[in-house]
Every structure is written in C-alpha cells, then in structure tokens.
Amino acid sequence: MKARSALCLCAVVIAGVSCSLLLFGSPSSGEAQQQVHNLHSFMKTKELMYKLDVSWPKYSEYFTGQAFGVAVDPHRSMVYVAQRGENISKVLVFTEDGSFMNAWDTPTIEMPHGIFVVNMGSEPSIWITDVGNGAHGHTIKQYSSSGDLLQVLGTPGRAGSNLNPLQFDQPAEIFVDTTGEFYIVDGDGGLNNRLLKLSEDFKILWFRGEKGTGPAHFYIPHSVAVDSVNRVWVADRGNKRIQAFNKVSGEWLGSWNGCFSEDAPYSVRLTSDEKYMIVAQLNINRIAILAVPPVGDIGDCHVVNRIQLADEVKPHLVDVNLKTGAVYVAEIGAQQVQKFVPYKLISSS
C-alpha cells in the first residue's frame, strides 16, 4: 500500500495536552505563532473541531486523478468522488468506513466539477456538473448509483446563457433541496455568473446574478447550499465573499466578506445542526468553520475554527455526512479525498 500523498495539520487538544501533526514539512516561525493563536482561540470558544481519520480510505491507490468533488449518501453510508484526468475513472465509490466499492468508466463525463447525492426514492441518484468543452460538456447530469446516465440538463457541448432551452457555461455545482427543487451556480469561469432555482420538473422559478461586485452579482459562483430556514448560501469565489438569498423569493439577504481577506471561499456546506458552515480555501490550504446565525439577519462572518492543511493540498469542494457529522474534503493538489471527524474540545479550565 502506498503512503498517503498528503495529510493535514490538525490542532488537537485533549485534556489540556496539545499536539500538531504535519507531514509536509515544518511551519515557519510566523506560521507556528499563528497556529498557536488559532489553538488558543479554539480552547476559548470550546467549539466543534475536527480530526483526521487516517484510516480513510483503506487504500489510497484508487485515487488516480485530481479529486474535484465529493458527495455523501448518509442513508446508505456511501461516498462518491469525482476526479479528473486522462484515461481514468471519473467517479470512485467508497463506503463510509473506507472500503472501495467500484468505479464508473462512463464516457459521458468529461471534466466533473460538483457532485451531489439525492435520496428521494427507492434508489439514490447522483448529479454531476460537467465543465468540459467537448461533446458532453456544459451540462448537469443525473446518474444512477451504479453510473447509468438518466438525464441531462443543458445543451451538451454548447455553452450559452439561454433559459429556454436551458443552457449553461461551465456550471460549478448543484444542490437539491429536500423539497426536490434544484439550486445551480452557473459560471466556473464561463460567460455566466448566476444562481438559478429550478422546480422538480426543471422549470425556472427564479434566477439571480450577472458579472459584477454589487449585491446579487457574482464573479465565479462556485458552490451552493440551502438551509432549513429558507436561505440559499453561495460561495462567490471571484469576489471573495459568501452571499445569502431567500430561497422562496430569491431576495438578496446579505454577504460575508470579512473572513476572506487571505483567500476566497470555494465551498459552502452546513453541518447537520446548521450551527456551522464548512468552507474550503484552496490557495491557503485551509478549511474554515464559520458560525451560522440561526434565523434572520445573517450579520457578519465569524470564524470559530480552522483546519490548516499541508502545503499544495489545495482543498476544492467538501461534503458533510449529516448523520455522523464527518467532513469529506476533495483535494486537487494532493489528488485525494480526506475524511475529518468531529469531536468536542475539552477545556483545560
């Protein structure tokens, strides 16, 4: 078995004893001071933290390309990984305990980006956004759990901005709400910079956005999630902010800018209790855990925790198992997915 290509730096505090694990070189003096500062902050807040599950997956040889996306099926304890590369399987399937199940060798996926599991019937389905420029690109596709293509949204191989027929230009991610409605961020560097809401039968309910820096404008909308109090959260990557919208009307609710001076948000995923948001920051190799207000005004952005990854890991998109709380991070640089499990800090006081 080959060694894991990259692991993270985890701040661990148990019964007042702290330790740091770094398998990609030693931090500089300034970095070490920042890590100590972060650790002290965690001890004061006593908030939820995460530690690396080094046993997941059981064998890392199955990662053969760049891991761009990951999606969890908590009901069946399955994990789906979308990866890119030449002559490789575009989707890998693992169990929650790290066993490899199978790989999809479908030719209908060119350049997968986002991936999402839906459980609304007897069998789950997997939605994948494809940002490729070939015959299958600029689409969002639904697959069975075994990799059979079920349907395609968008015009395959043709980028565009039309709503009828529906067209995409490098759609970044899709999120399917418990109501069956679809939320799509369209524009991973393409012409479009928009957020769309579709009904269960794929009719446009509303859309927001154009390229810009103002409220409800986007520059590379990269990830989307919906909470239980009717808010849609969007990682507005190019503008280094997260924006929030009312999921019923599409009304703009506000934005978070203050947490992203160092690097943009690449992902938005909520924990099962919706107290926290898990945000990947690719260029600084960090996972930020943000506090989420329960209802009403979204207020200002507050970082309550961080996971500092090793250099060049490049975390891209994440997903959360809403049953176990485990966080899965798709890493472009390390070409793998890592699993982090939550635990409560024990105060030294």
Textual characterization of the structure:
The protein is mostly beta strands and 349 residues long. It has one domain: Neuraminidase, CATH 2.120.10.30. The chain contains one helix and 26 strands. The strands form six sheets. Strands 2-1-23-22-21-20 form a six-stranded antiparallel beta sheet. Strands 3-26-25-24 form a four-stranded antiparallel beta sheet, with no helix packed on it. It is globular. Mean pLDDT is 87; it is low at 5-46 and 345-349.
List the helices and strands and how they pair.
Layout: E1 8-14, E2 17-21, H1 29-45, E3 48-52, E4 66-73, E5 78-84, E6 91-95, E7 100-104, E8 112-118, E9 125-130, E10 139-144, E11 149-153, E12 171-176, E13 182-186, E14 194-198, E15 204-208, E16 221-226, E17 231-236, E18 241-246, E19 252-256, E20 269-270, E21 276-281, E22 286-291, E23 303-309, E24 315-320, E25 327-331, E26 336-344
Antiparallel strand pairs: 1-2, 1-23, 3-26, 4-5, 5-6, 6-7, 8-9, 9-10, 10-11, 12-13, 13-14, 14-15, 16-17, 17-18, 18-19, 20-21, 21-22, 22-23, 24-25, 25-26
